[in-house]
Amino acid sequence: MTSHVLSRTAPAAPVASHKRPARTLLQAASLVFGLLCWHLATQHRLHLGVVTFENVPTPAETLAAGWSPLQSPKLARHLASSLSRVGWGYASAALLATVLGLLIGRSQWVRVALLPPLEVLRPIPAVAWIPLAILMFPSSELSMIFITFTGAFFPILLGAIHGAESVDPRLVASARSLGAGRAAVLREVVLPGAAQGIVTGLAIGMGTSWFCLVTAEMISGQFGIGYYTWESYTVQRYPDIIVGMLLIGMLGMGSSALVRLAGQRATPWLAVAGSGR
After folding, report:
1. 3-state secondary structure the chain
2. How far is CA 46 from CA 42, 74, 241, in A?
3. How far is the C-alpha of 151 from the C-alpha of 154, rounded, in Å?
4. Which of 1, 13, 142 is nearest to 85 (CA)?
5. How far apart are CA 9 and CA 173, in angstroms?
6. What are the pLDDT digits (tens) for 182-228?
7. Residue 159, class by beta-carbon neighbours within 10 Å (0-12 exposed, 13-18 middle, 19+ buried)?
8. Could you give the CA distance from residue 88 to residue 9 in angstroms, rounded to a whole number?
9. Which residues, at least 6 apart from 220, have a Cβ–Cβ distance to it below 8 Å?
10. Whole-angstrom Cα distance, residue 147 to residue 162?
11. HSE (side-chain half, CA atoms, 13 Å) at 225
12. Which of 58, 152, 184, 225 supports an S-S bond with 93, CB 3.0-4.6 Å?
């Protein structure tokens, strides 16, 4: 209801096109500066207290090492394995955590019943779940998907809870006074009001799912970017370690950006509301 009204009545947000070149230039400059610092530190084998760059590969060595996997089908197998595990784990976590978060945020009885055990489980790191996951599931593939699920579940859950709690009670009361039932209130008031928290949780959950997956792959995987990175260390292919790290970073950043973009497309009223501040 509120989202539909906003989308019909509010003017489109002005596009600050003059700021885009400056923003792009600043982003490019920050990347170049980071590469320059990396090059200088590794080229001169700097020792900064307890940190040393004596054995860290240079950017040129990393670039040369990254070219070889691109020509090998083995890298595609690693990427496909990691993407499949993240896809299944993240999708399951997004569905369950969003539903539970809305229920906890809107129902006092559900909150009392479910939030305490969830709060006990939330601080447990993903690596601590790995031994239990291996015992619980019949294959290492399912255990790694479960680890990815746990990494994404709690950020999405908290985002949905905070989003549901932030819905103005006056909007809910107004909708009910106009004759809206439970389903209509959820669809027209609660979901649009909680959308910002849900989208934020989904974006954070995507990043943490990659972090947890890589941890699981390093311990119990046979294929995947995490396994590739750990294998490179064990066979002393040090430039390949950074190749794996950069792949993980780019995959995590890209997938989180896609989630944010999808969230923006699905919630245009948030951009309109933000432009009016």
Report:
1. CHHHHHHHHCCCCCCCHHHHHHHHHHHHHHHHHHHHHHHHHHHCCCEECCEECCCCCCHHHHHHHHHHHHCCHHHHHHHHHHHHHHHHHHHHHHHHHHHHHHHHHHCHHHHHHHHHHHHHHCCCCHHHHHHHHHHHCCCHHHHHHHHHHHHHHHHHHHHHHHHHHCCCHHHHHHHHHCCCCHHHHHHHHHHHHHHHHHHHHHHHHHHHHHHHHHHHHHHHCCCCHHHHHHHHHHCCCHHHHHHHHHHHHHHHHHHHHHHHHHHHHHCHHHHHHHHCC
2. 7, 34, 20
3. 7
4. 142
5. 22
6. 788 877 788 888 888 999 999 999 988 988 888 888 877 778 888 88
7. buried
8. 39
9. 130, 134, 140, 143, 144
10. 24
11. 25
12. 152
- In angstroms, the first-to-last Cα distance of the chain is 21
> Number of C-alpha atoms within 13 angstroms, CB side, residue 143?
23
Q: How many other C-beta atoms can be found within 10 angstroms of the C-beta atom of residue 46?
A: 14
Q: What is the pLDDT of residues 53-95, one digit of tens each?
A: 888 888 888 888 877 776 677 778 888 889 999 999 999 999 9
Does residue 138 come out as left (phi exceeding 0), alpha (psi in the -120 to 50 range) or beta? alpha
Of 152, 263, 158, 131, whose CA–CA distance to 211 is shortest?
A: 152
- How far CA 110 is from CA of 100, 129, 188, 268, in Å, comes to 9, 26, 22, 30
264 Cα distance to chain centroid: 15
pLDDT given for residue 189 in this prediction: 83
The pLDDT assigned to 33 comes to 92
pTM for the whole thing? 0.80
pLDDT given for residue 265 in this prediction:
85
pLDDT over 60 (residue 16) = no
